[in-house]
Amino acid sequence: MAFSQTDLDNINTAIATGEMTVEFNGRRVTYRSMAELERARSIIESDIARASAASVARPRSVYQFRFTTARGD
């Protein structure tokens, strides 16, 4: 599942206010503890960081190889 910055903002708001219910992609999730909320935040942060690192594309180089063969006489 890909998370967005909005998802991260929602979970940060929930942590700041002590709210245990957060909405993600139109679904409501109720967490059991603050530790569970913080663990969810860590997962979301990791997912966003991984997605942004993947979007930073390295310049691709094109290599062309030419092979020739010769028969020895």
Description:
There is one protein chain. It is built from 2 helices and 2 strands, in the order αββα. By secondary structure, the protein is mainly alpha-helical. It has a domain at 5-55. α1 packs antiparallel against α2. The chain is rod-shaped and about 85 Å long. The mean pLDDT is 86.
Per-chain topology:
Layout: H1 5-17, E1 21-24, E2 27-30, H2 34-55
Antiparallel strand pairs: 1-2
Helix pairs in contact: 1-2
Percent helix: 40-55%
What percent of residues are in strands?
5-15%
SSE class = mainly alpha
Distance between the termini: 64 Å
Average pLDDT figure: 86
Which series of helices and strands comes N to C? HEEH
Overall strand count: 2
The strands making up the biggest β-sheet line up spatially as 1-2
Uncertain parts: none
What oligomeric assembly is this protein in? Answer: single chain
Shape assignment: rod-shaped
Radius of gyration: 24 Å
Largest sheet: 2 strands, antiparallel
Total of DSSP H or I helical runs spanning 4+ residues: 2
Key attributes of the depicted protein:
rod-shaped, 73 residues, mainly alpha
Brief write-up:
This protein has a domain at 5-55. 48% of the residues lie in helices and 11% in strands. The chain has helices spanning 5-17, 34-55; strands at 21-24, 27-30.
